[in-house]
Amino acid sequence: MVSVHSSTMPETEDVVGERFPQIRGHALDQRDVTLPDDAQGMVALIVLAFERQAQSMVDSWIGPFERHLCGAGRYTYFEVPMIAGLWGRMFSRFIDDGMRAGVPEKRHHNVVTYYGNFEVYSSLLALEDRGICYAFLLDKSGFIRWRGNGYSSPEEVEELVTMARMLHER
């Protein structure tokens, strides 16, 4: 079942200013998670990836965000592997167990696996290339305030951290 809520459908790749669409998934710590609702009141980085090969890209965003911000107040992040099709749903327990074994336990609450049709998210968030990851910085109300994709650069990390700090002060 796919549940998506967004104020408008973006006509361009620029989704900054839009409310992040609702994604329901299951965290590796076995909690049900609904984004952006479960990040309400916090500045949140949400990184979506469709392929295992994008993991190093995901880490290039999450690592610096976690180092610079996550110990200092109301910041959080979620890594969301997007797995489509019947195959994913049929083997979700096996897939989650494999991820759980490969992810440090302290990060299990930050990894939220989504199983289902992700075409609607591709459309709403202008996700054109499934071979890369997409990073979204959300304000405390769940609106997208910044977006990046692929591997982060030092300049993009600085921009992300600066924007997150500014959003935290609001």
What would your notes on this structure say?
The chain is of the alpha/beta class and 170 residues long. The protein has one domain (23-169): Glutaredoxin (3-Layer(aba) Sandwich). The protein contains 5 helices and 7 strands; from the N terminus they run βββαβααβαββα. The chain has helices spanning 55-69, 85-90, 92-102, 119-124, 154-169; strands spanning 23-27, 32-35, 43-49, 75-83, 112-115, 134-138, 144-149. It has a 7-stranded mixed β-sheet. A hairpin with a 5-residue loop joins strand 6 and strand 7 (144-149). Helix 1 (55-69) packs across helix 5 (154-169). The radius of gyration is 15 Å and the shape is globular. It starts with 22 loop residues before the first strand and ends with a helix. The model is unreliable at 1-12 (pLDDT under 50).
What is the topology?
Blueprint lengths: L22 E5 L4 E4 L7 E7 L5 H15 L5 E9 L1 H6 L1 H11 L9 E4 L3 H6 L9 E5 L5 E6 L4 H16 L1
Parallel strand pairs: 3-4, 4-5
Antiparallel strand pairs: 1-2, 1-5, 3-6, 6-7
Helix pairs in contact: 1-5
What average pLDDT do the residues reach?
84
Question: How much is the radius of gyration in Å?
Answer: 15 Å
Low-confidence stretches: 1-12
The major beta sheet can be summarized as:
7 strands, mixed
The total domain count is 1
Q: How are strands sequenced across the largest beta sheet? A: 2-1-5-4-3-6-7
